[in-house]
Amino acid sequence: MKHLNSLNAAAFAAALLAAPTLWAATAPTALGLAPTTSVAADDDEDEKEDEWHLVAGGDVYTGTGAVLRGASILIKNGLIHEIGYDLFVPEGAGETDVSGYRVYPGLIALGATSRVTTGRFAAEDPTWAIDPLSDPDEWMTSFEDEDLDLPTVDQDGFKSRYIDSYDPFSPYMTLALANGITACEQSGAAFKLRRDGIEGVVMNEDTSTNFNMRGGSARQRTRDGFAGAAKYLRDMATWERRGKPKDDEPSTRGVDTNSLRVLRNELDATFFADDRLTLLAIARLAQDYGFRPIVQGCREGWIVADELGRAGALVVLDPRERSWNDPESLYESGSSIENAAILHRSGCQIAVRTPSASIDTSGIAGRDLLSLSLQAGYAIRGGLDEEVALAAITLVPARVLGIDHRVGSIEVGKDADLLVTRGDILHYETLVDLAFVMGKIAYDKNKELYYAHLQPHQIAADLEADAAAESEDGSEADDADGDTDGDADESGDDD
Amino acid sequence: MLFPSIVLGATVALAGSIDASTTEAVATPNLFALRVGTAETISHGTIPNAVILIENGRIVMVGEDLPIERGIPTFDFPDAVVMPGMVGSRSRLGLDGRAGTDITPELSAAFELEPGAKVFGDVLELGVTTLGLYPAGGGIPGVGIAVRTKGSTFEEMLLAEPTNLSMYISSNESAKKLIEKGFELVDKYMEDVAKEREKFDKAVEKEKDKKKKEEMVFTPPVPDEKALPMLRLVTGELRAVIGMRKAADYLHLMDVIGEREFDWDVQANLTDDGDFFYIADRLGAAGRRMIVNPSITLHPGTRRERNLPKELHEAGCKLAFVPESDSVGGFRDLRADVATLVRYGLDRQVGLRALTLEGAEVIGMADQLGSIDAGKFANLLLFDGDPLEAGTELLGVMLDGDFVAGDLAD
């Protein structure tokens, strides 16, 4: 049977020619060939109106130490524009009145499973378009293809399989947001938990590299790597001082690239270690070569806290770790509830992680990602300062992921990732009422089904009541300055 | 089986209305009138005491209590409800083929068709008069065809080819790449055209003879068969049906197609934990047509029931229904499933329209079928009551003006 398409190919070309208007209409928009396209896009950007939103009247726990009672946060296009009192609010700005509530920076979860941004409660079937009964071979191979999807980074920045499988509507994401997590580490990349789109959700995917210091030979190899990298940097410096003579540039042959990047401060070095001796070795390596290690685990860190502190370590720990001391050892060993507090006193930065990185409605309650703030509470029980415990699930994990310039605290210029709660975020009874991500409400406890029945908040109800009152009395809504305070000329006072 | 309550005219020798109490098969002449208790026209509502004038397999006139010219044979069904034949706009019935996940827009469902397969007769008995068939495979597997559900040869069955181009998107890199590569075929052809144009312009410049210069005509290169359906898409000659499973797939699709503009419908299998309600407002704002199964589903992670088709419709989407399972059994349950949605709040007319006219839109044949309107094929279903009522019987299926299934058929 001859296919009709091929028969009509010549006719199509002729039709193309005969319809110049269609041609002209199609070419620039659909095919992006005409130079006018980019100009048009720029124009669009200029015309795009700024989006303003005010989170008004809450007690703002900035995460940097300061608490501003009854302060407001003005958000412009998803970023924190201003924090303070009596802010000038531009016309048309949205407002969420959270007076009587607390406002915290969004929490950041380290080591989450990939489910958070991709999962569904229902079983995933990537091969839905293929019928397994009629196409058993194809059905099988389609699974293999999925595994071969390797991350790629293009010139525009981060574009990888992580973003290509991101699901802003994943129920796990709702659960994570319900427990205050607005960003998480997943498969080595830092994700923003956005619910309204997929643009810019991967914040960093090249944050750190792992080194192994467990066991004598591994320790020697790692040390040799750093020694070689340090020698190369010394040789480079000498060569540069000599005016970069030709033919004499030091060779990178045999130099460990990862060690080199760490010493050049391009990449963080992560070590997984729990026992005293390995932790000591890491601390000394870091001191010798002058970098700040990220130490994951760190169960016996409290024993060698001074050395880790001197190395300026960022410690990622689980405050609820339980292991007994070794009665035959001459040294102290095992876990301590005071681990986080002691390490912090010695100069380490503390990030808290959960015992289990999974997330589910049917997991072991109190141990998975949904209990992040609770874990920080355990560190307080061990003597850690409350402020530091908050930083341990906000600012310090942001530093660990290299995204602290964007998230981790409430500061002007940072992403407006905010939590609204009725009580202390670290208290076990506190539930997240609202979560803002990039200035937009990504989670509203009253509207999602998971916790709606527990202590419903009054924020949205107030908003709805306001809206109803306004619609009854239309004149109130339309001051000359666009707000509802009755002051018609305040906009003239400002620039 | 006998239906004594039905009054119909069997003898066409007598002119005018016939009041013969027979349940024999009805042989329709070339020109005749059908008088029914109720007509669900789809395009302009419900008409009581409707008269439908049919000539040469097409509807000529529809109206309430139209006067029938002396001499035109009339068939009276005073208790019957008539609606257009159902359009199964996305089906693989009677197709036999397998394909991988690839970019093959040049392939057609016609290659897989087994004309006269028994299954077509089976769904015709259930009131499906038109099927939109689509090719096997993932990625961009090819173009679909529209067929009558009767006929023993390809030519007898074929209504239209191509109807639409199938594509599949899901939230992963490989699926997105396939769609991107499909559109790269368009870009490449456009580059070829630009190059040829440049050559042509140079040739025109070189030509010194004024007369010859005026006679020169630019001929764009003939696109290869792979690129052709993609080009048709961007020029608006062909529409696409894009299959997706969840709301996030839509966002990833928008990420891939970016600024490109073309007509497309969404095909989605609504399952429990389906989450299209998250993007209902975006789909609705675009007036997107959703080809879905008429099923009540559960809110993700809960046992709370949702009427997603209703929500999508209220957001502004158009709806076309396909059975939950693409099989004879699926088509058997189709009307009952729609009835359930109507019971749970979907507008009844929207439900009927989703079975007929919107399906015709999907296969680009809305000017030919899908509603009871002058000029359209006389594809009609005769029921003894409300088509969505569980106890209602399908008395007869008319295809191109002939009763071809049901007790009224030969």
From TrEMBL, chain A:
The keyword Signal applies. It comes from the Bacteria. This is Amidohydrolase-related domain-containing protein. Residues 1-24 form the signal peptide. Keywords: Signal. Residues 462-495 are annotated as: Disordered. It comes from Rohdeia mirabilis. The keyword Repressor does not apply. One of its GO terms (molecular function) is hydrolase activity, acting on carbon-nitrogen (but not peptide) bonds. Residues 463-495 have a biased composition (Acidic residues). Residues 334-428 form the Amidohydrolase-related domain.
From TrEMBL, chain B:
Residues 307-391 form the Amidohydrolase-related domain. It comes from the Bacteria. InterPro entries: Amidohydro-rel, Metal-dep_hydrolase_composite, Metal_Hydrolase, Metallo-dep_Hydrolase. This is Amidohydrolase-related domain-containing protein. SUPFAM superfamilies: Composite domain of metallo-dependent hydrolases, Metallo-dependent hydrolases. It holds the Pfam family Amidohydro_1. GO terms for molecular function: hydrolase activity, acting on carbon-nitrogen (but not peptide) bonds.
